[in-house]
Design brief:
With 205 residues, this protein is α+β, with helices and mostly antiparallel strands. The chain contains eight helices and seven strands. A seven-stranded mixed sheet has the order 1-2-7-6-4-5-3. Helix 3 packs parallel to helix 5.
Length: 205
């Protein structure tokens, strides 16, 4: 199926508008993207705007945008934020994603995510990522136990994220799905806020 995209300009931002269901690959299951019970979530679970973030912990642009997005979600109070760990840059990226997802079993995904995004630069090693998570106050013995016990579930989630990204035709990280818009670039808080405002304006029409 051909993907139809309409391009608009908003405050200097180039946004791709997914024109309804026909804009998506035939194999995309929108409900699976938005409602995967294993995908970590932040913000308001009943928020009026949902943002889906495809990220890699070795992506410098992800590290730039992720804190800005989280500031917006906290300040706004009505945004549902869904994380899609999509480790595509290195084996260390896979390791980092697994650490973060395993931390979720002790309610610490957010802490692990912030620690990993806080590592400066690209090309960080598995040891770097493990050290960052440990420094965030996460119980590493429990984390290892959860990695071992839930390896199949974590690997399956990463595979689902990868399949969804490929079905959407994503080419790299970061990518943010905000309502009908696909943003494949790092934005600051104001940039994200402008897109959210446009989504809300469209919903009121």
């Amino acid at each position: 199926m051909m993907r139809r995209r309409l391009f608009i300009r908003l405050g200097g931002l180039g946004l791709a508008l997914l024109a309804g269901a026909s804009a998506l690959h035939a194999q995309v299951d929108v409900k699976a993207i938005l409602d995967d019970p294993d995908a970590p979530m932040a913000g308001d679970p009943k928020g009026d705007v949902t943002i889906v973030a495809f990220l890699d912990y070795n992506c410098p642009f992800c590290k730039k945008a992720s804190p800005e997005l989280e500031k917006l979600a906290r300040g706004d109070g009505h945004i549902r934020l869904i994380y899609k760990d999509w480790p595509i840059l290195s084996q260390a990226s896979v390791h980092g994603a697994k650490l973060a997802l395993a931390a979720r079993y002790q309610g610490k995904y957010g802490a692990a995510h912030a620690a990993l995004m806080g590592l400066t630069g690209k090309g960080r090693t598995e040891d770097d990522m493990t050290a960052a998570v440990a420094a965030a106050g996460i119980d590493m013995a429990r984390l290892q136990a959860d990695l071992d016990a839930h390896d199949a579930e974590i690997s399956a989630l990463l595979q689902r994220n990868r399949a969804q990204a490929e079905a959407l035709g994503l080419e790299g990280t970061p990518v943010f799905l905000i309502g009908p818009y696909k943003i494949a670039q790092a934005l600051d808080r104001d940039g994200f806020a402008k897109v959210v405002a446009r989504v809300r304006a469209g919903a009121r029409r």
